[in-house]
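Summary for the funding panel

The consortium committed to producing paired sequence-structure records for every protein in the target list. Below we show the first two records in order, beginning with the earlier of the two.
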Amino acid sequence: MSQPPEDPASHSTGPSDRQTLRLLERNLSSDSLVTETAFDPDSYEPRLLRGRLDAGRYPDRVTAARLDIRWFTTGDFSVHYVEEHEDGERWECRWDRHPNTHNTRLHFHKPPTATEICDLELPSLHPLEVYSTVLTATEQRIEALWP
């Protein structure tokens, strides 16, 4: 007996969750680590929230750092941390929750290239709890960069 065709919607993250992106933007904009926030393509129909981080908190070899956040009405998300270095290299990692074939729905793309992936456990999937986890990891990364 053949399997029924797979429902393509089961692999969808769904539409962007504008309300959650706006909640996260309010939190980012009040954090001393964040110098600027922006929605892409705009604040009316945001698909991406970008938070530029204060380069003054990093050693000189890090020329820029940012968080790129996507959040969906299904509760799926992607929070991508990226550092740009003066030698042209990038250091990055990503917290993800989405349907995929490589790991569990909730997983982490490890630094420095975000290509190695492992399963992830978080105490809560509430957007502010995920935000707190990411900001704590970001602060720990900044501390580790200093000799």
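The next record, for a separate protein in the list, is shown here:
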Amino acid sequence: MTDRLSHVYVIYIESTPETVWDALTDADLTAAYWGHSNVSDWEPGSRWEHLRTDGSRIADVVGTVVAAERPTRLVTTWSAPGGEERRRPSRVTFAIRPHGDVVRLTVTHEDLADEAELAQASHGWPAVLSNLKSLIETGSPLPLDPWLIPPD
């Protein structure tokens, strides 16, 4: 397949760009709504890891920080650990735009390898970002991890 697939998801959050940025990059905050800690120094060229919070510290996703422009834009590559050498990683761009007291967060996950990765992104991003929105707006994530709800 020569055409790479992509998924775009937009969500509106009552927040500031700085708070949304922190929710994406702070390991403790990501652990609270994602079930993983996103760990990096968030400098362009640095490695980042998506570490399980079950005590195992297993990285399910790894990548490189491509761009980090706090608080408006974060771009990272995504790959399975060790997969960076086997195939081109996918790329995720978080665009954070303020509109008064509301932030529009646009997540673009591109260069997906196949329909299976597209299906995972199409199910995963709405679940994760709904939990992020709940945490920011109410102080608590949703009472059930939304990614555990089977897709229709």
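Regarding this second record: The longest strand covers residues 59-69. The chain has three helices and seven strands.
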